């Protein structure tokens, strides 16, 4: 939809140039029957420049494009009123642009809050020491966990203080509902357990859900907004703390060098229970691997709203690959095992991994979604 908006802005800007051309007598403009003075012609030119600049900023993916479009919109409507006989239909375009500007503001605001959340998360570990993972440190782990960490390529590499993932996939918000594509970024701080997940879901053409799921300093939180404007979910509390820490425990699969920071208990030759205690919150779950150390699944009890339910992360049998020099699971699915039957609600693919990367000043850094910001 953003291409449609860019085209609308370009056409709108070019139409405003006609007022400048007529005002300065550069060419006959039969569509404009009302006389335009040179001062008014300059106003038409200024508005045209602002509208075209807004189109360029939106095409470039700049989150603040609406700051240019808003004064252009005001100027355009002033011209429509002043030259109503010829320009009245410009109101239609201005209404459409106004809607996009409002959504653009919401997106800019939500992304700014997300960037601040990430900077707060990462700032906690800025001075944390980083040392290579030594093979000797794996001695106390169950054999299958040692195989997994070794096979990942983490041994001998510095333990990252910050891990940044880029993801894409699809999700459902209701069982048997429509699958909705999404793109996301996630930041982890393994030296002080925490994450911020920023997701953009395309709910319909031109309509997106902006979400932020976080676990910082022992507290979980979830915020979802329709069009980055209308709050849909704003949740906190002990149950969310537990659910977020369980999620973090499952996602250690993407930074295996920090598996030594978990408490492990062997179950059998290919499975082990991992436990993580963070302040007042405890998370525990069972990892199951192939015989050679690739991850198959992670199972745990996790709060879903008010009740504890069985939660399952399954790795695509052919879903492992190398990113950033590590062998990690790239494709997975997430399900609830409910009394009425299992519900797979998320299908995820990791498409980028950076360790100790700089935090971007704006969001979203890798994936400007076509549905976002108008």
Low-confidence parts: 365-370
Q: Helicity range of the residues?
A: 25-40%
CATH first level of the largest domain: Mainly Beta
CATH topology of the largest domain: outer membrane lipoprotein receptor (LolB), chain A
What structural class results from the helix and strand content? alpha+beta
Domain count: the total is 2
Structure description:
With 374 residues, this protein is an alpha+beta fold. It has two domains: 2-103, no CATH class; 124-355, outer membrane lipoprotein receptor (LolB), chain A. It is 33% helix and 34% strand. It is built from seven helices and 15 strands. The strands form two sheets. The chain has a 13-stranded antiparallel sheet. A hairpin with a 2-residue loop joins β4 (207-216) and β5 (219-226). α1 (2-23) packs antiparallel against α2 (38-59), α1 crosses α5 and α2 (38-59) runs antiparallel to α3 (65-82). The relative contact order is 0.13.
Task: Please summarize what this structure is.
This protein has seven helices and 15 strands.
List the helices and strands and how they pair.
Blueprint: H1 2-23, H2 38-59, H3 65-82, H4 84-87, H5 90-123, H6 143-152, E1 163-171, E2 180-188, E3 195-204, E4 207-216, E5 219-226, E6 230-236, H7 238-250, E7 263-268, E8 271-278, E9 281-289, E10 295-304, E11 307-315, E12 320-323, E13 326-329, E14 331-338, E15 341-355
Antiparallel strand pairs: 1-2, 1-15, 2-3, 3-4, 4-5, 5-6, 7-8, 8-9, 9-10, 10-11, 11-14, 12-13, 14-15
